[in-house]
Design goal:
Blueprint: H1 2-5, E1 15-23, E2 26-33, H2 49-70, H3 81-91, E3 92-103, E4 110-122, E5 135-145, E6 151-161
Antiparallel strand pairs: 1-2, 2-4, 3-6, 4-5, 5-6
Helix pairs in contact: 2-3
């Protein structure tokens, strides 16, 4: 996990532990998260949308690394971890992020689940035939909760630039 979060400043590494699993052919990850102090705003007393996105990114970066390392997703076949570490910041794009808070979450200690849905490889429309650029599209979802019944859910579409 350390390498997956290395691109974050030390005080912004919110995932403290994460475990992946494959059940019924679906990949998911459960994480424990802690945000002792917001990196950009005075204390709001609850998890906010910016922190939701940062936590999601950290789980995503870890899950992609795990997929590459263990060959869990065929679309990442041919990728190596050194290639991913070099390219992850420029190659991983959030296309759409939707989140919804049902109840406030204590950011000082909470949990998250990342779920990987449909993954496909494609060439973006409008590109010249024979062009090299390909994308890996990932439909993902997440939910966060805490010990006081806090709850937030969301869906995220991610594109990874393959070449």
């Amino acid at each position: 996990m350390t390498e997956a979060l290395r691109c974050y400043k030390p005080h912004c590494r919110y995932v403290t532990s994460i475990t992946t699993r494959v059940r019924d052919g679906r990949l998911s990850a459960i994480a424990e998260l802690r945000i002792p102090e917001s990196c950009y705003i005075d204390d709001t007393g609850h998890l906010n949308a910016v922190e939701v996105n940062i936590c999601y990114n950290q789980m995503l970066y870890y899950v992609i690394a795990k997929c590459i390392k263990e060959g869990l997703v065929p679309e990442f076949g041919g990728w190596t971890l050194p290639d991913y570490w070099k390219r992850r910041l420029g190659a991983v794009l959030i296309v759409r992020l939707q989140s919804a808070f049902q109840r406030p979450i204590d950011p000082r200690h909470f949990f998250g689940e990342f779920s990987l849905g449909r993954v496909r490889r494609f060439r973006p429309p409008g590109r010249a035939a024979g062009g090299d650029e390909k994308l890996i599209s990932m439909d993902t979802s997440f939910h966060y909760w805490d010990e006081n019944n806090g709850r937030c859910t969301g869906q995220v579409k991610v594109s990874v630039i393959e070449s």
